[in-house]
Design a protein that fits this description.
single chain, mainly alpha, 5 helices, elongated
Length: 109
């Protein structure tokens, strides 16, 4: 069976189209980004601030504040290393982890 492909149709098989070549063809310097860019330190700081304010205002912050801050930041960092970039998910996960963390209780004898 003989298949005839026009030159125009064959071009799609030879060079697949991509956003970068389309942008160059249209005269645009770079393809439009879908989401605004947020740097990791900004995302980390905003997520921490949300979690800290909630825990502080609800009275759930107990013990040494530096240890609490380290715990919250550690949880946020671990999720960011997995690729999570949603600010509220990061802060809510840190809040939940802080609420469920094991706490040492000393018994007075």
């Amino acid at each position: 069976m003989l298949v005839v492909i026009s030159f125009r149709g064959a071009a799609h098989f030879v060079a697949p189209r991509c956003a970068a070549t389309d942008a160059a063809r249209l005269g645009t310097s770079a393809p439009r980004q879908r989401w605004p860019v947020m740097t990791d330190p900004e995302l980390r700081a905003q997520s921490f601030e949300i979690a800290w304010k909630y825990l502080d205002q609800s009275g759930l912050l107990t013990g040494e504040r530096q240890d609490s801050a380290r715990f919250i930041l550690n949880r946020i960092d671990r999720l960011m290393l997995r690729g999570e970039r949603r600010r509220l998910l990061l802060s809510n996960a840190a809040i939940d982890a802080y609420r469920l963390r094991p706490v040492l209780v000393t018994l007075d004898a």
